[in-house]
């Protein structure tokens, strides 16, 4: 395994561990999700350039578009939960109280 592949795998793993263990604030969960998407986007875009496959050139752009939609939805949920509950702590959010 090359050092570049190792760095991408470790970035994704650390982001997933951050999402699993640091779940106190919604903004930290959103940042971990964004870093996971970024750690998948960079190798995917490098892979299409290295292999020179024009048919897969739109895949990183499509993934980046979905990531932007996910970020916008997450920030909208953050603003809505902060307005209704007063904070962005995840322990305040309960689906049974809706």
UniProtKB/TrEMBL annotation:
It catalyses: a ubiquinone + NADH + 5 H(+)(in) = a ubiquinol + NAD(+) + 4 H(+)(out). The chain crosses the membrane at residues 6-22, 29-49, 55-80. Its EC number is 7.1.1.2. GO terms for cellular component: mitochondrial inner membrane; NADH dehydrogenase complex; respiratory chain complex; transmembrane transporter complex. InterPro entries: NADH_UbQ_OxRdtase_chain4L/K, NUOK/Mnh_C1-like. Keywords: Electron transport, Membrane, Mitochondrion, Mitochondrion inner membrane, NAD, Respiratory chain, Translocase, Transmembrane, Transmembrane helix, Transport, Ubiquinone. Signal peptide: none annotated. Coiled coil: none annotated. One of its GO terms (molecular function) is oxidoreductase activity, acting on NAD(P)H. One of its GO terms (biological process) is ATP synthesis coupled electron transport. It is an enzyme of class 7 (translocase). It is a multi-pass membrane protein. It is found in: Mitochondrion inner membrane; Mitochondrion membrane. It comes from the Eukaryota. Pfam families: Oxidored_q2. Belongs to the complex I subunit 4L family. Core subunit of the mitochondrial membrane respiratory chain NADH dehydrogenase (Complex I) which catalyzes electron transfer from NADH through the respiratory chain, using ubiquinone as an electron acceptor. Part of the enzyme membrane arm which is embedded in the lipid bilayer and involved in proton translocation. This is NADH-ubiquinone oxidoreductase chain 4L.
């Amino acid at each position: 395994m090359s050092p570049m592949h190792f760095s991408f795998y470790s970035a994704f793993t650390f982001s997933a561990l951050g999402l699993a263990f640091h779940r106190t604030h919604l903004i930290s969960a959103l940042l971990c999700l964004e870093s996971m998407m970024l750690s998948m986007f960079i190798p995917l875009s490098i892979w299409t350039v290295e292999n020179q496959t024009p048919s897969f050139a739109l895949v990183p752009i499509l993934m980046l578009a979905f990531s932007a939609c996910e970020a916008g939805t997450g920030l909208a949920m953050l603003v809505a939960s902060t307005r209704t509950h007063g904070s962005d702590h995840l322990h305040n959010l309960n689906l049974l109280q809706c």
